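# nightly structure sweep
# worker-07 picked up a monomer target from the shared queue
# config: single-sequence mode, recycle default, output format = structure tokens
# input follows
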Amino acid sequence: QFHTSENVQKWLPFARDDLAAILYPNICGTLGDSYDAFGYVNNVDSFTTLQKTSIRWMGSLAMYFAASKIKSKRNITDERASL
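# output follows
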């Protein structure tokens, strides 16, 4: 019932194709933002200190490059304004 509603059919393509693509560069637009996004790993008790550090640094670097690629592909120069 939910998936067939007219309202869902109207907004689903936007959320899937546009919103998701512009949110990612807003979350990870700078290395600092990407690093902050990985802050949650410090609260995972099952990770060692080395794992936490590695995940946070390598993950933030990967996320930053992915966001940069999306910005380039979609010609986004100001990710905040794109929202």
